[in-house]
Write a structure and sequence with these properties.
About 45% of the residues lie in helices and about 10% in strands. With about 500 residues, it is mainly alpha-helical. The protein folds into 4 domains: about 10-65, no CATH class; about 75-195, Tyrosine recombinase, N-terminal domain (DNA polymerase, domain 1, Orthogonal Bundle), CATH 1.10.150; about 210-405, Intergrase catalytic core (hpI Integrase, Chain A, Orthogonal Bundle); about 415-500, Arc Repressor Mutant, subunit A. Strands 1-2-3 form a 3-stranded antiparallel beta sheet, with helices on one face. Strands 6-7-8 form a 3-stranded antiparallel beta sheet. Strands 11-13-12 form a 3-stranded antiparallel beta sheet. Strand 12 and strand 13 form a beta hairpin.
Length: about 500
């Protein structure tokens, strides 16, 4: 221990400081004697003596009230030090066979930083000093005063929700349980909380799609596959999500070897490109390859957009594409998300038959990769207005075309000026200057719309430079019934020539 000064108060540049290093085990050190709210140490001798006596009384009280008179000299008995040790253990630890993600570790570190600062403000620096009343007061503080966001200012924030406070309590409980297992505290104060004092998260509010709605967005996505490689892959990814219930990282990391066409199964398992990073118990599993999914995958693997490597998809981001589909059909963006597709599959699968009888909840649980039925019953399964009592999960557009055809036409409808430019293009094609003159629009507006039509695959550009010509790819996008099928056939017929060009 450092040798204390003969005099408790000493002066430096006209400012008062005090040496409390003989109380180092209780938080004492060389400290500036500052009044509450002051930015610098005091320069007044009388005030310095008063502040020194006040701080000395605090340290002596902590020394007297501490169990056994003096704390152990192990630095990990202090809350801040043990919190850092706990975070370091989380970074190395495997939870049921997998490492926690960096984002999870960072989030729990934030929780512990806030708890450490709160207890320090209450004069609690040692693990054994934390009581159940302190934990209860911390939860009340979180409810009324949201913790600051580390590294930036956030104004106008209200208190945390019950779900967020439950996450904070979970992190603190995990740290204190580790301290109890290592015999640093006699008991875990969180265990003494009453059940009604523990915040619980609200029920899951993730929306889900009815059978017809899932068929609609699949059809909207299918009609856009001629617009490019990424859209074709995203359409297949959407189909895999809706017809297997796979998690986002699981579907994104699928390899061609994971498709068992002989046994009609899709395997979700660790591989060279997707390690075991998901909910571990039940990650390695197989899901039936339903007939609709099998047809989509066979067409995709035989087409021009399948990657050359082992991966089934290139791993492109599909969030923006999902937002476009939601906007096309007039839905909020939150309704078209990968988590929504997973909930949709669970809700549709629980209504199917297995050998003529209702499918077992345990079977659906295994296909979803859950470790218990609680997640399936309380979070994922929703009761829709449509009962799909059949032997397979499927979203067939021809069964719902009459009901959702208006939404499909609205999704395919072009803005008025876009339609004007597209209608001005002759059937035999035209150069850019000829086409612009026929459209009657200003050059800037015409060139913007032209690039958008080319990007969406509605117009094919042949050649380069000023001599390039343009021709239409789809006769009529807003046609319904057989005409729209004819339009899709025209796109598929023109696709090889487009690639050759």
């Amino acid at each position: 221990m450092p040798r204390p000064r003969k005099q408790r108060i000493y002066w430096k540049d006209g400012r008062a400081y005090a040496d409390f290093r003989d109380f180092a085990l209780w938080g004492g050190r060389q400290e500036a004697l500052k009044a509450a709210g002051a930015r610098a140490a005091t320069s007044n001798a009388d005030e310095a003596m008063r502040l020194c006596a006040q701080r000395l009384a605090e340290l002596e009280l902590e020394k007297r009230t501490h169990p056994e008179g003096t704390p152990t000299e192990d630095p990990l008995d202090r809350i801040a030090a043990f919190a850092g040790y706990h975070v370091a253990c989380l970074e190395k630890r495997r939870k049921r066979g997998r490492a926690l993600t960096p984002g999870t570790v960072e989030q729990r570190k934030k929780h512990l930083i806030h708890a450490t600062r709160y207890f320090a403000a209450k004069g609690k620096h040692i693990l054994r000093d934390i009581t159940t009343a302190d934990v209860r007061g911390w939860l009340v503080h979180l409810e009324k005063n949201p913790p600051p966001v580390l590294g930036r200012r956030v104004g106008g924030r209200t208190g945390l929700s019950d779900g967020s406070r439950a996450g904070y309590l979970f992190t603190l409980n995990a740290m204190l349980r580790r301290a109890w297992r290592e015999e640093r505290i006699p008991e875990n104060p969180v265990d003494r909380l009453d059940p009604d004092e523990r915040p619980t998260a609200s029920p899951n509010s993730t929306p889900f799609l009815e059978i017809g709605e899932a068929a609609l967005i699949l059809e909207v996505a299918r009609r856009g596959i001629h617009r490019g490689r990424s859209r074709a892959q995203n359409y297949v990814r959407m189909a895999v999500h809706l017809l297997t219930g796979g998690r986002g990282s699981e579907v994104k990391g699928l390899e061609k070897e994971d498709l068992d066409f002989a046994g009609n199964f899709v395997w979700f398992r660790p591989n060279a490109t997707r390690q075991n990073v998901n909910k571990v118990r039940g990650t390695a599993r197989r899901v039936p390859m339903w007939p609709q999914l099998r047809a989509i995958l066979e067409e995709y693997l035989a087409g021009p957009h399948v990657p050359a490597g082992p991966r089934l998809f290139d791993g492109t981001e599909c969030r923006k594409w999902l937002d476009e589909i939601a906007a096309d059909v007039g839905w909020p963006s939150a309704k078209v998300r990968l988590k929504v597709f997973r909930v949709t599959y669970a809700s549709a699968r629980i209504q199917t038959l297995d050998g003529g009888a209702p499918v077992s909840d345990w079977t659906v649980q295994q296909e979803m990769g859950h470790s218990s039925l609680r997640m399936l019953q309380q979070v994922y399964v929703r009761i829709g207005s449509v009962r799909q009592r059949r032997e397979q999960v499927e979203y067939r557009w021809d069964e719902w075309e009459a009901q959702f055809q208006p939404l499909l036409q609205a999704a395919n409808r072009l803005p008025a000026k876009w339609r004007q430019v597209l209608d001005a293009l002759p059937g035999h094609g035209a150069t850019a200057m000829e086409w612009q003159a026929l459209s009657g629009l200003a050059v800037g507006t015409f060139y913007y719309i032209r690039e958008q039509l080319v990007t969406r695959g509605l117009v094919l550009k042949c050649g380069q430079g000023r001599g390039s010509r343009f021709r239409r790819m789809v006769p009529d996008l807003v046609a319904s019934g057989p005409a729209s099928d004819h339009a899709d056939a025209a796109v598929r017929t023109a696709e090889p020539s487009r690639v050759a060009a």
